[in-house]
Specification:
By secondary structure, the chain is mostly beta strands. The protein has three helices and ten strands. The longest helix is centred in the first third of the chain and has 11 residues. Keywords: Copper, Metal-binding, Repeat, Secreted. InterPro entries: Cu-oxidase_C, Cu-oxidase_fam, Cu_oxidase_Cu_BS, Cupredoxin.
């Protein structure tokens, strides 16, 4: 599964598409069967409008649907489709901006994609992951760090004074 975000990261997806990578092709390069060990953290400014497109792939024999859950926010499911997400076509043809569902979990269809949107107004570290535990352990997850805003109510609370220290 590939993850993108509007702005810079959406442009990154355009680059991938321009290179001709087919996320849902029958045959994928063998090296993609082995995930790369990494710490994936995306920084988000407080109050930023975030759009994430979750792209399903054909890795692992075509895969299955993935229930992707985001902690800390509910989001609008603004679009979905099958095959590769097309950054120039899909927002105008496969998005529902009139009455999108409001959820905290969205199913990425097998060999398809889903687009979600939320306002990052809850500063702290948040986890987004596939709700199949097996997939979670395989690395189908990401961490978002929503930065503090300027207002006092837009910032993470400090630790309580009686919080035990780490040793
Ligand atoms: Cu999954």
């Amino acid at each position: 599964m590939a993850l993108t975000r509007s702005g810079r990261l959406r442009n990154a997806v355009s680059c991938v598409s321009a290179a001709g990578f087919q996320f849902t092709a029958e045959d994928q390069p063998l090296f993609l069967q082995t995930p790369r060990l990494a710490t994936e953290v995306k920084m988000i400014k407080f109050g930023e409008a975030v759009e994430i497109v979750l792209q399903g792939t054909s890795l692992g024999g075509g895969g299955i649907d993935h229930p992707m859950h985001l902690h800390g926010f509910s989001f609008y499911i603004v679009g979905f489709g099958f095959g590769n997400y097309n950054v120039t076509k899909d927002p105008s043809t496969n998005y529902n901006l009139k009455d999108p569902p409001y959820r905290n979990t969205a199913t990425v269809p097998r060999s398809g994609w889903v687009a979600i949107r939320f306002i990052a107004n809850n500063p702290v570290v948040w986890f987004m992951h596939c709700h199949f535990d097996r997939h979670l352990t395989w690395g189908m997850n990401v961490v978002f760090i929503v930065k503090n805003g300027r207002g006092i109510s837009q910032q993470m609370l400090p630790p309580p004074p009686d919080l035990p220290p780490c040793y």
